[in-house]
Fold:
Amino acid sequence: MVSSLDGAVAAGGAGSQGLSTPADRELFRSLRRAAGVVLVGAGTARDEDYRGVRPRRPTADEPVPGPPPPVAVVTGSAALDPAAALFTDTVTAPIVLTTAAAPPDRREALRAAGAEVAVLPDLAPGTLLGTLARRGLHAVLCEGGPTLLGALVAADAVDELRLTLVPVLLGGPAGRIAAGPVAAAPPRGMRLAGHTAAGDGTLLLHYVRPGGAADARTVHPPNE
Ligand SMILES: NC(=O)c1ccc[n+]([C@@H]2O[C@H](COP(=O)([O-])OP(=O)(O)OC[C@H]3O[C@@H](n4cnc5c(N)ncnc54)[C@H](OP(=O)(O)O)[C@@H]3O)[C@@H](O)[C@H]2O)c1
Structure:
């Protein structure tokens, strides 16, 4: 997630892309390279004209890269345009996570556009993550937006947070990175596992949930 110094998650009509800086874009690409699946809310997929994840370039370590991860979109309405780049400009078929309450003709149109449409009993975080896990998709990179991240925070389902602070003050009505239901008390404490300051003043913050999978992968300071 990317935020201005005063907490805005979108700038003008360009959403988070209007905030992002070169260091943030490089981090965004590197996180996608390690992801099993990119999970995103339909609001972000629509506003930011999402497309499929680009294939990785061959390297000495990986001369024949595997297919890029799918994008999984959470939508109660299934109101996604079958002609959108999400369906037409992708190597790996996207996954649409929805429920039987979404109009059947919309679900069918997305299937016809090449998506795997998963009709779930509900769109609670446990159901979403369980559905992805049953497909072998355990490394879930959630790219927002605030409604989806808010649901994950409220369900205490966030293991790791990459937060980019961009050195601008925006004011205005833009919301914060997580919105929606209040998380259970006490607040979930997170451990700072790393931080990088880019030359332009962008701060890349890496927080992990103590005791979680990401916590075990990261270096702990010797005095901890
Ligand atoms: N700064 C950042 O890092 C960042 C990152 C991502 C997005 N953004 C910005 O955030 C804005 C979009 O915000 P948003 O809150 O609308 O985004 P969102 O979470 O991407 O989308 C909300 C929509 O997704 C579906 N949805 C998400 N979670 C759901 C759940 N648990 N249960 C049921 N449906 C769920 C619903 O779709 P339906 O309406 O189809 O039912 C809902 O209307 C854009 O301006 C975008 O640019 C900023």
